[in-house]
Amino acid sequence: MSSTTTAPKKGFDFKAFLANNGALVGLVILCLALFIATPRFLTGPNLLNIGIQVSTIAVMAFGMTFVIVAAGIDLSVGSVAALSAMGSSYAVTTAGLPDGLSIPIGLAVGALCGWVTGAMSAYGKLPTFIASLAMLTVVRGLTLVISDGRPISTSASVSWLGDDLGPIPMPIIILVLSGLVAAFVLNRTVTGKNAFAVGGNTEAARLSGIPVKRVLVTVFVISGVFAALSGMILAGRLDSAQPTLASGYELDAIAAVVIGGASLSGGVGRISGTLIGALVLAVIRNGLNLLSVSAFWQQVVIGAVIAIAVGFDVLRRKNVKH
Amino acid sequence: MSNEALLVLDRVCKSFGPVRVIDEVTVQVHAGKVSVLLGENGAGKSTLIKMIAGVHEPDAGRILLDGAEVRIPDTKASEALGIATIHQELNLVPSMTIAENITLGRVPRRFGIINRRAMRRIARDALDQLGLNLDVDTEVGELGLAQQQLVEIAKALSLDARVLILDEPTAALTTSEIAHLFSVVNRLKAQGVGMVFISHHLDEIAEIGDYVNVLRDGKFIATVPADTDENELVRLMVGRDIEAQFPRVAQQPGEHELLSVQNLSVGMLQDVSLAVRPGEVVALAGLMGAGRTELIRAIAGADKYSSGSVSVAGKKLPSFDVAAATRAGIGHVPEDRKTQGLVLDASVAENIGYATMAATSRGGLVDRKGQRARTQEVAARLRIRMGSIDQPIRSLSGGNQQKAVFGRWFTAGAKVLLLDEPTRGVDVGAKVEIYELINEITAAGGCVLMASSELPEVLGMSDRVLVMSQGRIAGELVTADATQDSIMALAVSNVHREEEMGTK
User: Fold this and answer.
1) What is the pLDDT of residues B327-367, one digit of tens each?
2) ipTM over cut 0.90
3) In A, which residues are within 8 Å of B344 by CB distance?
4) Chain A contact for B344, CB < 8 A?
5) Which CATH number is B242-329+415-504 given?
6) Domain B2-238 has CATH 3.40.50.300
7) Alpha helices, DSSP H only, in B191-291?
């Protein structure tokens, strides 16, 4: 009998793998289905297209992962992306600062917005939902004020973010690099690990001497910086910073994080999962476009996918815990 | 014996991943008898119960009901077979009446409309069976915990339960409530209900049980009569002799105060001063709400205090600053490990490592190798029983989870341990191990301030007792000269005085 205690049944590991990587399995199935359905799916140009599509949402969602792991939510990222894109371009094309400062200014704007949201919830005790909802409106308003409601042309360096580097589009390169950085920060640094502790059990974290408020502010700053980067990529691709840029993107970013297996109650989340979540959304959109499904129906499908993906995850968790 | 058994678990096994938590266990439940399930936390009692309740199916072995093999794939099946489980967390809707709760999910209807009269009759019958005199229209939320528990039992009986599983039903009850529960259990015995009873209180076993099934590490050890000597039960349960339930090794206290609290006031705490020297264990006794937890939390930096001071080794600590307290050598084991002590989704290693993660980091990066080595060393030293240090702490038993909270402060090298109910919900074997940890700290020149509601623990493990009453320290006793009565006399002293003043 003792042999059975040590050697788990064959196929068990495979099942566990499936259970733990539901989103990945879903993505693979999705790709296979599209591969069979249309010859246009698995072509170089189309895959690059998906890569560019996914980059803005994924980069934004990487930052969102930090906030959600810490049991918060950041609804302001779409607006922050717009203000950062606007600010980075405005500083150069209108205010006449050197082009080299453009991207740093954009990132700083994002960090500042994140800091304000984080401080409101950490020190002002506003729920993160409310603090970031307020910022969503405030920041979008500021963007409109600065631009006077009109698009402005991007600085050279922001445009460069939307160009190609050799055969590979810059957004994809930024996607990969920022993913690596995000994963490193989340898993290897004290800040990242503290985010898990705070999200998992705030009181236990506090009683262990973890500076809960500082952690909360930090995750929002991180979210703001990633949102800024995402916004500048988007502006770079369009070669113009528009005041309505990335409007509504916060919901896609949240969806990507949640499809990737993070828990909205905090303490659980992976950057790789978030990337897969963003890919699932992008591939579905792309596939539906290739299959000429109307944009109206696409919304219905995406909503259903979010519900199904999270539903599976809830089932999985129920089976794992005993 | 076996042919008349109501319910038999026959050589059942269950594994979670590679860990076999139940290994060929055979347990019998007889009509009209109370079968006690005894074992340390992690021995497999909960898993066994969940097999009967239909939460887990056994990997191997059979379940027999009235001699016929049955399968219990889910809780519905368990219910249909006449098996009911009363968990510690009750499954009642507080905002609904007793009658509504008892008939929940099978409301009697006439022409599609709820038949309130039939509903009340079903509930009334169920309560009568237990000899309970409660108004069936009372909202369950208005009842005390003990009465809610009885309502849940009544609900089970009205579903024709023949096997009743009581999972630590006495854990949260007062002495008189326990007596009432036991009278109900005896009534059910007479009605031929077979019961499985789980408790950590050994003295209850002889009183209510008929025979005891002892489990250890997922294996069946023995079935013995319920009047077996307590020491023998403990020996069967932990697999070795426990020489002393309270193995306190007193130290010669050091000269200088290690922890000193001066005139601390906040909320209900009024002008509290105390000092603990190296090598000492000082207990904080008192009634519920006397301010023990508030005092511990204020010292630990978890709560603000308005006046007074806390010093460690002569150095004054800032108020409301856990990180500063931690750096000064304070370690706080809070009252409720699940809500205040642990991050349940995180691993054992992470939970042990929280207090040292920032201090050992380099350039903001976690010292992964070092943290791993430190936590592994402490987990081994504290004999935390687990499959791997990377498993979620949620899956450990209560005693091992509590040891992990201690482990966090051992890793951090804490010199001043603040313990709040350190052995609540912890079984005998793990309790003794936790007491050994207290000895270890004091032998190394540290000190312990321990709030505890269990007087045997206070008398068994401390050197001095500070008795609190209504936010003040009502008196101090040397443990060697103290008795339960002398502690209680101090604990109620202020209460009496104020009552007298009130009547005058």
Assistant:
1) 999 999 999 899 999 999 999 999 999 999 999 999 999 99
2) no
3) 200-201
4) yes
5) 3.40.50.300
6) yes
7) 202-208, 230-238
